[in-house]
Design goal:
The chain is mainly alpha-helical. Helix content is about 65%, strand content about 0%. It has a single domain, classed as Glycerol uptake facilitator protein (Up-down Bundle). It is found in: Cell membrane.
Length: about 280
């Protein structure tokens, strides 16, 4: 085992971070989609909307514990963008992490499809559909409710992701109330759960561009067809763009209302504590 470890050990920091990010994102999306698959294919006899939300929130906690010490466990381009805006993360790594997270999400969709293969085909009566009473596409990607317009869905995702990032900024800011070391993932999971139960009705609360596009691409290739991109008046681009805008809004709101107003005389000491302050 020692010899194998020496042969397989990777010393390049970026590759190590990408491997950790791939694994934690894979676990996050696999549990999240699995919770939806169990609810849908059992016709809510072995799960409901609350269990789906719990699965997604707890998966965030598990993912952070898996990769937080190596890659930061971003698992979401919206969070990566916030870290870039606050100069906690280099901009050149942003597209690298987005690609890794998208790949992990795509692989997660494949894993859940294999896991629930018989259940999906039994529930759908042998037809993979994107709409209708026996649709199964919503297991993998998010779609707006029939009454929700694209504009309303866009605003929904900007607000939801903005609230998420505002809360995350507060949790990460050591100058603020603070969270006991090691419990940050638990608090962030509770934050995600609160947003899901409060803002999930309109469009399923994706809040994560790669969480949506990876599985959506999988369903397109796996047999659900092009309707995965056309349903909801071409809804597919909203979970890609709106969470990024919401991330910037939430990050700047925290700076403008909280982080900019700490006493300047404490600046050096606070910087050493790992402050979350927009430098430029």
């Amino acid at each position: 085992l020692t010899r194998v470890r020496r042969l397989l050990r990777i010393r390049n920091q970026l590759i190590r971070e990408c491997l950790a990010e791939l694994l934690c994102t894979f676990v996050l999306i696999t549990i999240t989609l699995g919770g939806a698959a169990q609810r849908v294919t059992s016709e809510e006899t072995k799960g409901d909307i609350l269990t789906s939300y719990l699965a997604g929130a707890l998966a965030v906690m598990v993912g952070i514990y898996i990769g937080g010490g190596i890659s930061g466990a971003h698992m979401n381009p919206a969070f990566t963008l916030a870290m870039c805006l606050t100069k906690q993360f280099p901009w050149w790594k942003f597209p690298v992490f987005v690609l890794v997270e998208a790949l992990a999400s795509f692989l997660s969709a494949g894993a859940v499809y294999v896991l629930y293969y018989d259940a999906i085909w039994h529930y759908s009566n042998g037809t993979l559909t994107v709409s209708g009473p026996r649709e199964t596409a919503s297991i993998f990607a998010t779609y707006p409710a029939d009454y929700v317009s694209v504009a309303n869905g866009f605003v929904d995702q900007v607000i939801g992701t903005g609230v998420l990032l505002t809360g995350v900024m507060g949790v990460m800011d050591n100058r603020n109330k603070g969270v006991p070391k090691g419990l940050e993932p638990v608090v962030i999971a509770m934050l995600v759960l609160s947003i899901e139960v409060a803002m999930g009705a309109n469009c399923g609360c994706p809040l994560n561009p790669t969480r949506d596009i990876g599985p959506r691409l999988f369903t397109y290739l796996a047999g659900w067809g092009p309707e995965v991109f056309s349903r909801g008046n071409g809804w597919w681009w909203v979970p890609l763009v709106a969470p990024l805008l919401g991330s910037a809004v939430g990050t700047y709101l925290y700076q403008l209302f909280v982080a900019f107003h700490y006493p300047e005389e404490d600046g050096d000491a606070l910087e050493e504590q790992g402050s979350i302050v927009l430098e430029n």
